[in-house]
Amino acid sequence: MLDVAKEKGIYMKYICAYLGPDKLDIPTAHYTCTVCVGTIVPGHATAACLPELIRITKPGGHVIIATREVHLPHVGHEGKSFDDWLQIHEDDNLWRKLERKRVPEYQGEFAGIVYTYQIL
């Protein structure tokens, strides 16, 4: 995927890293908008990555997460569901939910959920 991105010639930096609980080699509050699509799935990223998405996004910026609805029961962390973790971070005043939208035909016959949060 990085090779495809490089061919476009529009990106300034290419990062190949594991998105999880560990700190990424990205400065704090670096991006105005962080988009995570097709990443929150079993065997890839889980709710454990949310603190990093929050950390690398500027205050006032947005984090947009989209995934298939069927994945949500399988991408929690430490015994809590994905939606529980979204709410925990909101309760901790790290971000606020702007929208949780169900998309009936997100990917073919699979419904999806698109979350939009603003960093506080």
Q: Could you explain how this protein is built, in words?
A:
This protein has 120 residues and is of the alpha+beta class. 20% of the residues lie in helices and 35% in strands. A 4-stranded mixed β-sheet has the order 1-2-4-3. The longest helix is centred in the C-terminal third of the chain and has 10 residues, at 82-91. The chain is globular and about 35 Å long. The mean pLDDT is 95. InterPro entries: SAM-dependent_MTases_sf.
H and E order: HEHEHEE
CATH class: Alpha Beta
Shape by Cα distribution: globular
Q: Radius of gyration over alpha carbons?
A: 14 Å
CATH topology label: Rossmann fold
Low-confidence stretches: none
Tell me the layout of helices and strands.
Elements: H1 2-8, E1 31-37, H2 50-56, E2 57-68, H3 82-91, E3 95-107, E4 110-119
Parallel strand pairs: 1-2
Antiparallel strand pairs: 2-4, 3-4
What is this structure, in a nutshell?
This protein has one domain: 3-Layer(aba) Sandwich (Rossmann fold). It has three helices and four strands; from the N terminus they run αβαβαββ.
Q: Which characteristics define this entry?
A:
Rossmann fold; about 35% strand; about 20% helix; SAM-dependent_MTases_sf; alpha+beta; 4 strands
